[in-house]
Amino acid sequence: MDSNVEVGLQVAEYLLQIKAIELKPTNPFTWASGLKSPIYCDNRKTLSYPTLRTHIRQQFVHAIQKEFGPVDVIVGVATGGIAIGALIAQEMGLPFAYVRSEAKKHGLGNQVEGVIEPNQKVLVIEDLVSTGKSSLAAIDALRQIEAEVVGMVAIFTYDFQQATDAFQAAQVKLHTLTNYHLLLEKAVQKEYVTEDQLETLRNWRKSPAAWSEAFLNQ
């Protein structure tokens, strides 16, 4: 088995175990957008489990070294990428900074907090990639201060085509520890969902808005 797939399945299993990711095809969640969704992800829960937190930190470090090579600064995206990013920077003996969702409206008005010099190579840390909009906004903020963004590593992605296209357009390499396809594989294997529910979950990913509308119109 490919090592990335092996890591992805293991991380997916951990996320399901601690309910950092929950699947409810018949009783969906309501997202902030108002859309109904059969999945909800809160990877900040991983910080509450020291063994899992350590495993994820180690897998991040391994991925960074394997996929990206030497970097100068680790940068977390607020808020989910800050804590794990700081742990990774500590493990690698590197400086740490983070990017706010928007510039402060007081003080120095910073959006990037920490010390990053022009042309330094930075690796960005996220907990979750959905559409890619907020992640790429953080990368744009880093590029505006002349940082060289070598890529991004995240715990999980829904693998939306919108995000794939956006990262390609922005010329940003994205590596995730696990993804939606591996999550579903593990969820069926460990009986978190049935084979019948699996088809529903696959259909949701193709078009979350259409899936939500169809559910509400049942």
Describe the fold and architecture.
- It contains eight helices and ten strands.
- The protein starts with a helix and ends with a helix.
- It is of the alpha/beta class and about 220 residues long.
- A six-stranded mixed beta sheet has the order 7-6-5-8-9-10, with helices on both faces. Strands 1-4 form a two-stranded antiparallel ribbon.
- The chain has a single domain (about 5-200), classed as Rossmann fold (3-Layer(aba) Sandwich).
- It has helices at about 5-15, 50-65, 80-90, 135-145, 160-170, 180-190, 195-205, 210-215; strands at about 20-25, 30, 35, 40, 75, 95-100, 110-115, 120-130, 150-155, 175-180.
- Helix content is about 45%, strand content about 20%.
- The longest helix has 18 residues, at about 50-65.
- The model has no long low-confidence stretch (mean pLDDT about 95).
